[in-house]
Amino acid sequence: MTRRQEQLNSQMMEILSTVVQSEMQDPRLQMLNVTRIQVNRDASHAMIYVVSLDKEHTPEEIETALGHAKGFLRSVLAQTLDLRHTPDLTFRYDKAAEGTERIMSLFDQIAEERSKNPPHFDEEPNE
């Protein structure tokens, strides 16, 4: 990935995260986080990966809502970024990030259970 792609990914992530959190009215997009963005080499296309903390809506519903908001989000990027052409946007629910969150949640549950009921070990090992 080029330095320019990394910079554009970072700028787009900051802009889209802010807009989704503050300006989107669709209830399916509440509690939505942009996890990563991949812009292709010529910056004509951007794949935006998201995850939602709201478990009421399915990933498909969230992708549909983002598809409907795509024009608005692209226009915000066009106004904010200094680009000749604004990338076409594709949204995908980030299942990898969701899996990581689930694993971290399980670790938190284990740690909580261990703090409430610490394991008991024999002082002398059995031989």
List keywords for this structure.
50% helix; alpha+beta; elongated; GMP Synthetase, Chain A, domain 3; 3 strands; three-stranded mixed beta sheet; 127 residues
3D architecture notes:
With 127 residues, the chain is α+β, with helices and mostly antiparallel strands. The protein has one domain (3-116): GMP Synthetase, Chain A, domain 3, CATH 3.30.300. 50% of the residues lie in helices and 17% in strands. The protein has helices at residues 3-22, 59-80, 95-116, and strands at residues 32-39, 45-52, 88-93. A three-stranded mixed sheet has the order 1-2-3, sandwiched between helices. Helix 1 (3-22) crosses helix 2. The longest helix is centred in the middle third of the chain and has 22 residues, at 59-80. The chain is elongated and about 70 Å long. The mean pLDDT is 87.
Layout of helices and strands:
Blueprint: H1 3-22, E1 32-39, E2 45-52, H2 59-80, E3 88-93, H3 95-116
Parallel strand pairs: 2-3
Antiparallel strand pairs: 1-2
Helix pairs in contact: 1-2
Hey, roughly how much beta strand do the residues contain?
Answer: 15-25%
Order of helical and strand elements: HEEHEH
Order of strands side by side in the largest beta sheet?
A: 1-2-3
CATH architecture: 2-Layer Sandwich
Number of helices: 3
Count every beta strand, where a strand is a DSSP E run of 2 or more residues: 3
Quick overview:
With 127 residues, this protein is α+β, with helices and mostly antiparallel strands. 50% of the residues lie in helices and 17% in strands. A hairpin with a 5-residue loop joins strand 1 and strand 2.
